[in-house]
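Local shape tokens:
==================
===
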Amino acid sequence: AWTIQSSASDISWNSVTYGNGVFVAVANDGILASVMTSTNGTSWSIQNASVANAWQGVTFGRGVFVAIASSGTSNRAMSSTDGAAWTTKTTPVAANSYNWSSITFNHSYNNTGRFVAIANGGVGTTQRVMYGTLNTATTDTVWTIQNFNTTNSWNAITNNTSWSAATNIEVVQSMTVHECPGVTTMCMYVGLGNTANTDSKVY
């Protein structure tokens, strides 16, 4: 059963995650005060983002929160260890052309993990996947954009081990992830965040 709670601000909250005992949500209004945190999911506090971008997605992995945005110039990612103090991360120049919409974390990659983001549109058409390699010593992420073999508007991504190896990540066109047994292009998997196959999974 769900219970309505009051947010910390009446803006467009778009994504939420949990880690280190803290819930973190981000908003896409393009203002600085576009993060809120809570330890119980009931009482929320406003936090400042590192820059006033339109933050679309947030995830947690290896002790680090990472958020991605659909606006900004080579600064469409930010990270935090506590959800309150955020640091801007440099993203590739090519990433400026895409509306980054969702992000997840793959724990299995190279024993350190990898953040993977997808886009639901933009000026470009062939590079709608971006991955961030985590440096566990500095909690930094180095981002790389990848060629993509479809121009679909991808809106949600999650790490999924239900149908294949733990290194697979499943991307779908809605906020609900389904197992994909068929052969159409509604769903795809991205192996380790840098290859794509649109005709092996369906929902």
Observations:
- The CA atoms of residues 61 and 107 lie 7 Å apart.
- The mean pLDDT is 78.
- The chain is about 0% helix and 45% strand.
- The radius of gyration is 16 Å.
